[in-house]
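Comment thread on ticket #2218

A.B. wrote:
> Attaching the input chain for the structure job we discussed in standup.
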Amino acid sequence: MPGGVVDKRDAILRAAGKVFAERGYHATGISDIARELGAGHGTFYRYFKNKEDIARSVVSRALGRITDALSDEDPGSSETLSQYREQVRRIGHKLFELVVAEPELGRILFYDAIAIDRAEPDLAGQAMEAAAAYTAAFIRNGQDRGFLRRDLDAHVVGLAVNGMIVTGAVRLLHVQDPAGMRQPWIHTVETLMFDGLGSS
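C.D. wrote:
> Ran it. Output below, let me know if you need it in another format.
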């Protein structure tokens, strides 16, 4: 796509994301997004088929932001326990900063993604599976190197760890001082991982 087309499409997605996060998917109309963007309805239909198409693209964009944030974190890269623990902390800080910097992203993923039209029913499910596979690879590296217990299924552990992360991220959307949750949240996930899953 030419640069201008990409920029306009991204502007629409950012405006739509803000409105979806504020009003919810079902309560949002094209006119609400148009008002936020300061453009006419025709602008949308040059880039998207309908509200559902915009919403799916908003979710995909939000998922892409998470992928980008962790793109330099190879789940198999840590070779020592200190490197492994540091990577856990680093990933925690990156995810925390992303949710705090872009709360709309969290609201869309945690509240609106499942409500989007069934034309693409596997969108949220595929994202969850991709996240689970990433975390499972990270867990498996810890098991292979003897940092974590080997008797637990890495995929199931990955889902459980992701559940802790998602619960913490949802909580961040509802507190007045999210910065105050940073250390307790990251420390708790790290402690549960290494004290609960650590090899003895």
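A.B. wrote:
> Thanks. Noting for the ticket: The chain has a mean pLDDT of 83.
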